[in-house]
Amino acid sequence: MNKKIIFGSMLLGTSVCLFLLYLFGQTEANGSTSEFQEVDYVIGVSQPNLLEPWQVLMNEELKNEVAKHDNIRVIYTDAAQSTEQQIRDIQTLKDYGIDLLIVSIDNSSDLTPVISEMYKEIPVIVLGRGVTGYNYTLYIGSDYYFIGETAAKAAMNLLGNKGGSIVEIQGITSALQAEERTKGFQETLHKNPAYKISDVLVANWQKDYAEDQLKLLLEHRENPPDLIYAHNDAMALGAYRAIQSLGLKDIIIIGSDGVNKQNGGLQLVNEKKINTTFITPTGGKEAIQYAIEILEEKEVIPKKIILRNHEINEKNIKNYLNEKEVAASSQEGGDRSITLGFAQVGNESEFRAANTQSIIEAAKEADVELILKNADNDQVKQIEIIRDFIKQKVDVIAFSPKVEHGWEEVLREAKEAGIPVILSDREINVKDSSLWTSFIGSDFVEEGRRAARWLVTEEDSENVQIIELEGTRNSAPAEGRKQGFEEVLAENPNFKILESYQGDFTHAIGKKMMKKALVQYGKEIDVVYAHNDDMAIGAIEAIEEFGLQPGADIKIISIDATKKAFRALSTGKLNFSVECNPLLGPQIMKSAQDLVRGKEIPMKIITAERTFTQEEAGKEIKKRNY
Ligand code: AHR
């Protein structure tokens, strides 16, 4: 190859880089970096900053995973903590023709609208730091309210019952993850007046900033605080240095992120510079894996992947320092077939029938030995079934909890027996979240919001009277769907819930309750909000028997969006349906197998769901197979 061509291509290569530099501020590319090599996909990664060790680790994990795929090219940008620059970066990546955007953000209020716009045109993965709402393809990251809540519990443990005064050092106030951490931390602490937050500082995730601010605060304070909670380890190190420089002693420091690097959270705990931190996985590896699945249009892509955080303190630090050993030892499970015990809640609805079918089929598909028992909507029976699985020493237990409370005892028995538990479809309310390993299901609060958002845009009359048919009392879907619906109604005072009737997700009770409502309120009723399709269909029959026209005289909204609902939508008897996805089988089997192989699985996998008007149902009905 003669020199001219080599020189020409080098010149071209450099000018492309220079042009990219001009376009993006800080930028870089990896994966197949040769401009000439054809790649299937180009992915853009927009980082808010690369000042923080955690963001740097995220980029490293992204690059390590990208290096395994030579059919993709990735362009990285770094906005150096400027929101304006990040907005420019995202737009320029788009103009550059990327197929998918991975974005981590600091400023959720300014970036959310930008990401919503982007999502209208290309798939968007929000990584590590969230945006408000659901206008993106997939969110991968931690539950920051949960981190704040767990930090508060650690603070209360470390301070003891005598309590004490606390200084909180926040990241960037515009960042959703700082807001949620503060909410989780303060709401948990406020339950006990012995723990007082005396000061809140904002240090932009920066070590030096935290050090300066804390020094300033403590120099003018008579009594030093008993505990410092810093939203990341960099600021926790800053706090440690401030305390050192003032010669203060015995102040407890809690950080977050738990990066295993010099001055990372693990080292700081190991060197006793801070007391506690929380490993916060970056999700870099998962983001590239899911990006490829999304671009290859794999069918089941979840909406949210919530990664589990691990509390690190002097008691367990040694286990985490030797990551490699931990990783090696955890590969023991290997590829043997596994036994999964599934305690199904009942047979109350079309959703439930599809859910059970999905689990049975997926087990066959994955060659998992499934023991599926049905509790006929009886919690005592469901607990007995789980106890029986423990006796049978199954590898993994999964169940769809009838109600939110009353599971501590039997789950503690499963934990003591070393059997991990997957919550399917419905969450539970237990103080100790280590009693369950993973939740796979829907965001019921968001489902309730979606039902109400349609109603308030659809109806504009002065005074709209609603009958609510609730699902099983104290069950996660009933609680969530009520909360989400009322949250939106609270902003629209012309919508009133006349009465809420206690149903149980069945057709029969739905019909019975609607009859009662019609007797009581008759034509006053404008809308029926049913927590599931089966109760809505029952209500439709009652309304017809009462001599009114469902869908016209009385508008009807349901949740599940099963085929039955599609039929009612296409005949105009039902007006709107919010999807609740029952096809959880494949994800449950994958999670169960990963668990037995010793792989860390996400704390929560929230399914992606849609909504359907009468028109949309008309188009989709043929494709609906449940
Ligand atoms: O937990 C999900 C709910 O349970 C479904 O919406 C309902 O149909 C089922 O009873």
The small molecules bound here are: alpha-L-arabinofuranose
Ends apart, CA distance between termini: 62 Å
The average pLDDT is 92
Largest sheet: 13 strands, mixed
Provide the descriptors you would attach to this structure in a database record.
626 residues; alpha/beta; 13-stranded mixed β-sheet; 6-stranded mixed β-sheet; 25 strands; 20% strand; globular; binds alpha-L-arabinofuranose
Protein architecture, described:
With 626 residues, the chain is α/β, with parallel strands linked by helices. The termini are far apart. It is globular and about 80 Å long. About 1% of the residues have low confidence. The protein is built from 22 helices and 25 strands. Helix 7 packs parallel to helix 8.
In short:
Helices cover 43% and strands 20% of the residues.
SSE blueprint and pairings:
Elements: H1 3-24, E1 26-31, E2 41-47, H2 53-66, E3 72-78, H3 83-95, E4 100-103, H4 108-119, E5 124-128, E6 138-141, H5 144-159, E7 164-170, H6 176-189, E8 195-202, H7 207-219, E9 227-230, H8 233-245, E10 252-254, H9 265-270, E11 276-279, H10 284-295, E12 304-306, E13 310-313, H11 317-321, H12 323-329, E14 339-344, H13 350-366, E15 369-374, H14 379-391, E16 396-399, H15 408-416, E17 421-425, E18 438-441, H16 444-458, E19 464-470, H17 476-489, E20 495-502, H18 507-521, E21 527-530, H19 533-545, E22 555-560, H20 563-570, E23 576-579, H21 585-596, E24 604-606, E25 611-613, H22 614-620
Parallel strand pairs: 2-3, 2-4, 4-5, 5-6, 6-12, 7-8, 7-9, 9-10, 14-15, 14-16, 16-17, 17-18, 18-24, 19-20, 19-21, 21-22, 22-23
Antiparallel strand pairs: 1-3, 11-13, 12-24, 23-25
Helix pairs in contact: 2-10, 3-4, 5-6, 7-8, 13-21, 16-17, 18-19, 20-22
Residues 348-349, 351-352, 425-426, 477, 505, 532, 559-560, 580 line the site of alpha-L-arabinofuranose.
